[in-house]
From TrEMBL:
It comes from Drosophila gunungcola. This is N-terminal kinase-like protein. Residues 689-698 have a biased composition (Acidic residues). Residues 583-668, 689-803 are annotated as: Disordered. The lineage of its organism: Eukaryota, Metazoa, Ecdysozoa, Arthropoda, Hexapoda. SMART domains: S_TKc. Residues 610-626, 707-726 have a biased composition (Low complexity). Residues 16-269 form the Protein kinase domain.
Length: 803
């Protein structure tokens, strides 16, 4: 029993399962390198194995010397030691999981930009390790090559193979190496002892660094004469490379000087990847302003960084910086972008808990960035997490006093809807939507609420959908804000498959017909298209009643496909609703300056918009200023609203300057009416879509227009002119107060909305004022006549004037 205890294999006590060896490494080392895993955690590691039985005493001494140095030398760029085990037969050394650089070259991508950045970072790390050994440790490595450098999972280069490390002030003669394949890396002074007098403490290692530089751009070195070929070495590195592989040891630079030279502007080590990784290493000593500036610019550089560096080096640092530092919300954009590199299990473990924690934040900038980037991580969130932990936090945004948060909260429902349960989607969301559509003072938010409702219609319960959609869209068509009316029309067309034909005939078409005389041509055009589409649908059923069942097939279907609707007559509206939100001032990356100008003296029905009705609301600009301080440019021009701006993903804030219903807009009735007229010139975000072939006249399709200037000499370049495309004379314009009579209500009950009253056309306040003036005039005339009659009946008094 005792004998069996001493004779058992002691390697079983080694807490690692040793796997297959790494091919090719044993040709350049006395060790064999194996992939391995920790028995308890299954963490991947590497194990260097030396067979004492088959080796010589010299090799055994080298192996033990290497283990001793590896245990005592600790540096970020030196191979990390984990554990070791020595028996009478074998020597095991466990380190972090690595691959030899000599075999890792084949894994490097072909992207020259990415590869160049990465090689600069790797060479920088080895130069830093040699500076630590030569200058701080007063040691020489004596074995620098592609086979003494190892690459870990995060792409970092680590200096290993410490068998030949010696004191810098000892014998300058380079040691004899085993195996003989390493002799190709020997410096010239080994064969010419006369040069040893000029040797420095770092000359041997600098020769090895030169060999490593050559191998980084050309592959493994086969013979020393190949070092003369510098064709593939970058020009910014060629002069330094020639110094490293120079014949005179005294001319080879110190590694600390190399880092100083190459980190200067234009140097080989001065690039985005090296700057980024060095900043992350020192992030604990950076102030908050530096961190915000760094993280704000990081996202644009990530595409040029290797995936393994991003995933294992940068992403963990970002998560740590947010959770335990003061990095702020600027870290979110790069963190979510890099999250795409993780597999599902790792994403759930590392990113999702961070996301849930972020949604509980009361910081508006953090909430704004989360809502803007929701599409980057929503696919990884489980429905239970969304309903229980995320939606309750998001719902607070519907009641936020900041218009930007309310707008982004509305838009976020597009991504959340597929994962919301019945109560959250069909009760809570619709309750908030009804209030926003009816009472929000921002026209853009009311517009986008309608757009969002059209987009989430396929996810609503059929009974709720049938009860809500028509009422909500009809309310939108009676909104005083023209883009909101356009959104209502397009949403009706896009969701036409959810309406019973009886509902189309009795409710939808009468409401659409009232918009055929809308003051805004941008409203009339889609209204006519939609009317023709619904009429055509009714006409087909009239000709062939058997089609009714087909056309109403999706009304009671739980999950109809909105893609099928795109092939119908309303395909143009589906494209518009599913592709674009209303683009308000908030969608521009720069805030618009207030419009200024003088009031014109023309009659109210003919004059151009006044500055009071078109001036930008200061609260709208201030709300975004409180959230973002990144842009100091407040200039804007008509080109800000050109074709390219509508695809900008920065939603920004609301513009109520042209919303006549906003309490922040001008109080004058004339100003409100002029603002509505001028709004037809502003692109509403719907008119840049393909409208299909429904129209007989293709020229009637909506066209985007530029925002022209006011003719007044004092107006801003972003002022607007009045709309000249009104279908009715100016005196018969639709009165805002009448137009708004039925939309400002807090529910979507059936039958709530009545047809527009034709008698309501005209300006009610102007008529009332005119009537009062006429009454006063008549009263004065009656008083004068009474006085004349009184004077005529009696004698003239002294001092009285005869009339």
């Amino acid at each position: 029993m005792m004998w069996s205890f001493f004779s058992r294999d002691s390697s079983k006590d080694f807490p690692y399962d040793i796997g297959e060896p790494v091919g090719g490494f044993d040709q350049y080392s006395i060790w064999t390198l194996h992939k391995a895993k920790r028995k308890t955690t299954l963490e991947e590691v590497s194990v260097f194995v030396y067979d004492i039985r088959s080796g010589s005493d010299t090799k055994c001494e080298l192996a033990k010397a290497s283990l001793k140095r590896l245990k005592t030398l600790r540096h970020p760029s030196i191979l990390q030691y984990l554990d070791s085990l020595e028996t009478d037969k074998m020597l095991y050394v466990a380190t972090e999981a690595v691959d030899p650089l000599g075999s890792y070259f084949a894994k490097l991508g072909s992207d020259n930009v990415q590869k160049g950045l990465y090689l600069a970072w790797g060479i920088f790390q080895i130069t830093r390790a040699l500076s630590f050994l030569n200058n701080d440790g007063n040691l020489r490595h004596n074995n620098v090559s592609a086979w003494s450098v190892f690459v870990n999972a995060s792409g970092e280069w680590k200096l290993g193979s410490l068998e030949y490390v010696s004191a810098a002030d000892g014998n300058p003669m380079p040691p004899a190496k085993i195996p003989v394949t390493l002799e190709v890396y020997d410096s010239p002074e080994k064969n010419d002892q006369s040069k040893l007098k000029a040797a420095t403490k770092c000359s041997v290692d600098m020769w090895g660094l030169g060999c490593l530089v050559w191998e980084a751009f050309n592959g493994v070195l086969k013979q020393r004469s190949n070092l003369k070929d510098i064709e593939h070495i970058p020009k910014s590195l060629q002069s330094l490379y020639c110094e490293l592989v120079g014949a005179s040891p005294s001319n080879r630079p110190n590694p600390a000087d190399i880092i100083t030279r190459c980190r200067k502007p234009g140097g080989f080590f001065k690039n985005d990847l090296v700057d980024t990784l060095l900043f992350l290493e020192e992030i604990q000593i950076k102030d908050k302003a530096e961190k915000n500036r760094f993280f704000s610019g990081l996202t644009t550089h990530l595409d040029n960084f290797p995936d393994n560096v991003c995933r294992h080096k940068i992403l963990p640092q970002l998560i740590t910086a947010y959770e335990y530092g003061d990095a702020g919300s600027a870290v979110l954009a790069p963190m979510f972008k890099l999250g795409k590199l993780l597999d599902e299990v790792e994403y759930q473990k590392r990113i999702v808990p961070c996301v849930v924690k972020l949604f509980a934040s009361t910081d508006r900038v953090t909430r704004s960035r989360l809502l803007q980037q929701l599409d980057l991580f929503i696919a990884h969130l489980q429905p239970q997490v969304v309903n229980d932990q995320i939606f309750p936090q998001v719902a607070h945004g519907f009641l936020d006093t900041n218009a930007t948060i309310r707008e982004q909260t509305v838009k976020s429902i597009i991504h959340l809807a597929p994962k919301l349960n019945y109560n959250n989607l069909n009760v809570e969301v619709l309750r908030h939507f009804a209030r926003l559509q009816a009472r929000d003072d921002q026209g853009g938010i009311r517009t986008n609420t309608t757009v969002c409702l059209g987009k989430i219609a396929p996810h609503l319960h059929p009974q709720v959908r049938q009860r809500v959609l028509v009422s909500a869209f009809i309310r939108a068509m009676r909104d005083p804000f023209p883009p909101a009316r356009v959104a209502g029309v397009l949403a009706l067309a896009a969701t036409q498959q959810y309406f019973l034909l009886s509902e189309v005939a009795n409710r939808v078409l009468p409401s659409l017909c009232s918009l055929s005389v809308d003051p805004e041509k941008t409203v009339r055009d889609p209204a006519f298209k939609t009317i023709r589409g619904f009429l055509g649908k009714l006409e087909k059923v009239s000709e062939d009643p058997s089609l009714r069942e087909t056309m109403e097939a999706d009304v009671h279907t739980a999950t109809p496909s909105i893609g099928n609707a795109a092939a119908t007559w309303a395909g143009w509206a589906v494209t518009a609703v599913t592709a674009k939100f209303y683009r308000s001032q908030s969608d521009s990356s720069r805030p618009r300056p207030p419009l200024t100008g003088r009031n014109l003296s023309k009659p109210a029905s003919l004059e151009q918009p006044s500055s009071s009705s078109l001036s930008t609301t200061t609260s709208s600009v201030t709300s975004m200023t409180s959230l973002e301080h990144e842009s100091n440019d407040t200039s804007a021009s008509a080109s800000d609203y050109g074709n390219n701006d509508w695809d900008n993903e920065n939603w920004g804030e609301m513009d109520t300057s042209q919303d006549p219903s906003s309490p922040l807009a001008a109080s004058s009735n004339n100003g409100a009416l002029m603002a509505a007229n001028a709004l037809s010139e502003v692109r509403d975000g719907w008119d840049n879509e393909e409208w299909g072939s429904l129209e007989e006249d293709p020229q009637s399709m909506l066209r985007p227009k530029e925002l022209p200037n006011l003719s007044s000499s004092n107006t801003s370049p972003t002022s607007a002119t009045a709309n000249c495309n009104n279908i009715s004379p100016p005196s018969s314009h639709l009165n805002n107060s009448t137009h708004n009579a039925n939309w400002n209500s807090d529910s979507w009950a059936d039958g709530e909305f009545e047809p527009l009253d034709e008698s309501g056309f005209g300006n009610a306040k102007l008529d009332e004022a005119r009537r009062k003036r006429e009454e006063k005039k008549l009263q004065r005339q009656r008083e004068l006549e009474a006085r004349r009659a009184q004077r005529a009946s009696g004698p003239m008094k002294l001092g009285a004037k005869k009339l």
